[in-house]
Structure formats: structure tokens, C-alpha cells
Write a structure and sequence with these properties.
Elements lengths: L2 H6 L3 H9 L2 E9 L3 E9 L8 E10 L5 H15 L10 E7 L2 E7 L6 H8 L4 H20 L2 E2 L8 E3 L5 E3 L6 E2 L22 H4 L6 H18 L9 H9 L11
The chain binds adenosine-5'-triphosphate.
The site of adenosine-5'-triphosphate has 24 residues, from strand 1, strand 2, strand 3 and strand 5.
Amino acid sequence: MTSAAQDLLLRPSEELTLSSRGYRLMHKLGEGSYAQVFLAEFTNKDADDKTTKLLACKVVDVSKAPKDFVKKFLPRELDILVRINHPHIIHIHSIFQRKTKYFIFMRHAENGDLLEFILKKGPISEAQSRVWMRQIALAIQYLHDMEIAHRDLKCENALITSNYNLKLADFGFSRFVTDGQGRKLTSTTYCGSLSYAAPEVLRGMPYHPKIADIWSLGVILYIMVNKAMPFDDTNVKRLHEQQVNRRWKFRSKVK
Ligand SMILES: Nc1ncnc2c1ncn2[C@@H]1O[C@H](COP(=O)(O)OP(=O)(O)OP(=O)(O)O)[C@@H](O)[C@H]1O
């Protein structure tokens, strides 16, 4: 049994299904609320050269997830993942389901996520931050043009490739923001991480999800150049006070 199989309690039949399609799960890369992400190997058995490539695989086990996640958020994520294609959004290789588990195979980001990167290497230079901000902004512009809001923009969801390009990931909270007639829909569900949430989201008011995405993008930029959070409190009321009182400071080196 592989370490992935042990972490996931994969049944031998599930391992067999994966291997019959050319996939093998290896060690764990990361984990979120209801999913674990593994490094994976894919061998295209139909290709002449049978080359093997590395991918990442997000495994969602719905037997361990709450009802609203299974009925609402996961179907939205899968529906959006199959429609999007952009140079700064992580490329989806394939998705399949077996019993209670969904396997989302995607491009592997060799340099991990932006939060890990900043914690390891320190604040990002202004020149590099400019490049990365542009790349995330292009991905968000693409989504917003398609009337999709991400709703969970944070450093952990910006992945870095071997060439140091940023790719946006994790569409677990994303949704369409217009109805069938093109009318704007507001959100009321609180999504994402508190520190990245806009004031109107923290106040629990109906909010415009595209606008709230732009707030989170600003928080990402602040963290990139400062290696610190602009607003940091586990208490929602105090966090909101910090935001509206504009009590933040830039690192002295930031111009
Ligand atoms: N393609 C990838 N390449 C490398 N690492 C990845 C990849 N996808 C995800 N990861 C790692 O796994 C972590 C969790 O992935 P992801 O955010 O998709 O899971 P999640 O369960 O939706 O998370 P959350 O509950 O925080 O929203 C990421 O922060 C990242 O460190």
C-alpha cells in the first residue's frame, strides 16, 4: 500500500481503478478542509512513448464532508473547473469519481503555494510582486468576465510553477454571479479565510462577490511585499474595526 493509500484509506479496488487509467498517487502535498492533495504520476498507456508525467491530485471524500459542501459547493467547483482555461489558472488534467471519492488531477506546481514561498524566502521584491500581481489579476479578470467570482483568494491558493509563474487554484467556493438573465446576484454566504474577507463580508451583509475578490487581491499584495497580514485577528468584530480604522503599516523598505 502506498503512503497516499494509507492517508486516504484507499481501497485496493480504488488503487486498481487509478492504475488502470495510468495514475499513481504518491506523497501528500497539502490539505484543506475537505480535501487532500497528493503528488501523482500519470503514464499515458495509449501513447507510443509511454512517458510519465507528474501531476497533483486533489482527492475529495464526500463521505467525510458536510451536506452543503456535497450538495452546493462541490458541484459548483466541478462545473466551473471544466469550463475554465487560462494561462494563470491551474490546468485541470482530468476529473473522475469512484464511490465517495472525487479525484481532480491537475498540473503540479513545483514551487508550492505563495504562502509557503513567502514563509520560506521572506517578502517578495517589488519587481517580482508586480509580475505576480499582474498574473493573478489577469486570472481574476478572466473569471470576472465569465461572471465567475473566486471567493477564496488567498496566498495558499496561488501556486508557483518551476518557472516561477503564478497559477490560481482552489475553486471550492467559486460561483456564477449573474442569473440566467444576466442580472447581478449578491452573496450572503460567508466564504474563505477571515483575514482576506472584505468589510461587507465580515458584517454579514449581502455583498458583491467580484468586488470582495478585489479586496482579497489587495490583501495578497500586502502580504507579498510585507510578509505580514494587514488585518489579523480571530475575532470578527475586532478584525472589522482594524479594517475600517485603517490601522496598517507597511514595512519600512516598501516605498
Ligand atoms: N496543483 C498543485 N500543485 C502543488 N501543490 C498544490 C496543488 N494544488 C494544491 N496544492 C497544495 O495543497 C493545498 C490545498 O489545496 P486546495 O486549496 O485546493 O484544497 P482545499 O481543500 O480546497 O483547501 P481549503 O480548505 O483551504 O480551501 C494548497 O494550499 C497547496 O499547498
